[in-house]
Design brief:
Elements (H helix, E strand, L loop, with lengths): L1 E3 L1 H16 L14 E5 L2 E3 L4 H6 L29 E2 L2 E9 L1 H8 L1 H21 L3 E5 L3 E6 L6 H29 L7 E9 L5 E7 L2 E7 L1 H12 L4 E5 H7 L6 E2 L1 E5 L2 E5 L18 E4 L1 H6 L2 H5 L1 H4 L10 E7 L6 E5 L5 E2 L4 E7 L7 E9 L3 H6 L7 E6 L9 E6 L4 E11 L4 E10 L1
Parallel strand pairs: 8-11, 18-24
Antiparallel strand pairs: 1-2, 2-3, 4-9, 5-7, 5-8, 6-7, 9-10, 11-15, 12-15, 13-14, 16-17, 16-19, 19-22, 20-21, 20-23, 23-24
Helix pairs in contact: 3-4, 4-5
């Protein structure tokens, strides 16, 4: 029996058929719309490759990754040796909350099926975002993002996208099936992730010859596990290093609240509050990711517009696509999917708006740049370099309603807010997230 997320799948089909019409290469498209969960004795299990085929095109990625686990492939030359290597990495921990109690409530067989459903989901989605599953620890998964073959920014962005999508998919496809089977109430998932800079992450081989493991030694690897442990149920927690490295906008983060002796108190730092060699408190920040708001500026919101824009009778009134261009008005170099990677500073971004919905004809399209981050605050002036431009639409259907170029100037995650006003006065807004490195 297959349980299919038809709304997600149908919307993906609509959106990507439009993308194909408007010139985005075939290899970036969704290839087999089937966001499904196989039901195994009452528990939803995510089949291998099913989510990869669905989600990788949303983030500009190619063919699915094969399954693998254990030593990171970029550091296999260290295995069984005394050699070491410094290399940055982003680490993600996922844990099934209250899984120990599951065994008491459900018995070992049902507890295994529930836990395995979540572990399979995590593995498949980690692979979808080019992560490497390092260990499965009963009720937890540890994964690395990055290595020697990709930039640090790519690894960090992949990890954030993975964590946000894990939470989304768990809530949309797995948790409802578990609730149907009576398994949903006593547990959830928690995630923690952090970025370790190159000089702070040492790769080496632990153990004896024939009994060894290649892994990373770093405070930032260890603290990812602490972040997971201190995340509330079904939430994602970022460490200060990761937050600073990609300069995540404050509006996408919130501080954890904890109840202490009946009083709600802010809990902004990792506990215990570690001290340095001089005994000074580290005050290492932890930040809860507003994952729904984050996904709303990514391609996931477009693909499942019915879920992210529930109040709109036409959830996909227009499509925004983007590409990296050779210059202002220049040729397209390659497509850019929202929140997919860091565009190098100095590049141009070409935005294009199409209105595929019959009966809704645009009259104006407004592009508004919302910059975030320290560099925009420092260099962009009083308004952080924010600006807007409006185009009157005079072409018929089948052609772009508007085309607009922007310069990648400041590091961070920025927004292109697109407001389309249709003839008759209806206005709809979509926000397209752009990372700049």
């Amino acid at each position: 029996m297959l349980i299919t997320e038809r709304r997600l799948g149908d919307r993906l089909g609509e959106v990507f058929s439009e993308y194909r019409k408007h010139g985005i290469p075939r290899q970036t498209l969704y290839k087999g719309i089937q966001a499904s969960a196989r039901v195994d004795e009452g528990v939803a299990v995510t089949p291998l490759y099913s989510v990869q085929e669905m989600v990788r095109p949303l983030f500009g990625k190619g063919a699915p990754n094969p399954p693998r686990i254990g030593d990171h492939p970029d550091f296999m030359h260290l295995k069984g040796t005394g050699a070491t290597q410094f290399c940055p990495i982003t680490t993600l921990f996922l844990d099934i909350e209250n899984s120990t109690r599951l065994g008491l409530l459900l018995g070992p067989e049902d507890a295994f099926r529930v836990k395995n459903a979540i572990i399979c989901m995590a593995i498949e989605i980690i692979n979808a975002f080019d992560g490497h599953v390092h260990r499965i620890m009963g009720d937890a998964v540890m994964a690395y993002f990055g290595g020697t073959r990709v930039t640090s920014e790519t690894g960090a962005i992949d990890a954030v996208n993975c964590a946000a999508f894990l939470r989304y998919f768990f809530g949309r496809a797995i948790l409802p099936r578990l609730n149907e089977g009576g398994f949903g109430d006593p547990f959830g998932i928690r995630m923690g992730l952090d970025f370790g800079p190159e000089e702070q992450v040492l790769w080496s081989s632990y153990g004896y010859p024939g009994m060894n493991e290649v892994t990373a030694t770093s405070f930032y690897v260890d603290v990812a596990s602490k972040l997971q442990n201190q995340a509330p149920r079904n939430q994602v927690m970022l460490g200060q290093s990761l937050r600073d490295f990609i300069d995540m906008p404050a509006e996408l983060l919130r501080v954890k609240h904890a109840q202490i002796r009946g009083v709600m108190t802010l809990e902004p730092f990792i506990l215990p509050n570690y001290t340095d060699r001089e005994g000074k408190p580290l005050n290492y920040g932890k930040h809860l990711l507003r994952w729904e708001d984050y996904l709303k500026v990514s391609g996931v919101a477009v693909a499942d517009a019915g879920a992210f824009f529930p109040d709109e009778t036409i959830p996909v009134p227009f499509v925004v696509s983007a590409a990296i261009a050779s210059g202002n008005g220049g040729a397209v170099e390659r497509p850019y999917m929202a929140c997919s990677e860091a565009i190098p500073k100095g590049k141009w971004i070409r935005f294009e708006v199409h209105a595929p919905t019959v009966g809704l004809v645009p009259s104006t399209v407004r592009f508004t740049v919302e910059n975030h981050g320290e560099e925009a605050r420092r260099k962009g002036g009083e308004n952080h370099g924010n600006h807007e431009v409006t185009y009157a639409v005079d072409n018929g259907r089948g052609q772009p309603a508007a085309v607009h170029y922007e310069y990648a100037d400041y590091r961070g995650l920025h927004y292109m807010v697109v407001d389309v006003t249709f003839r008759g006065g209806l206005t709809r807004t979509r926000t397209f997230g752009v990372y700049v490195g």
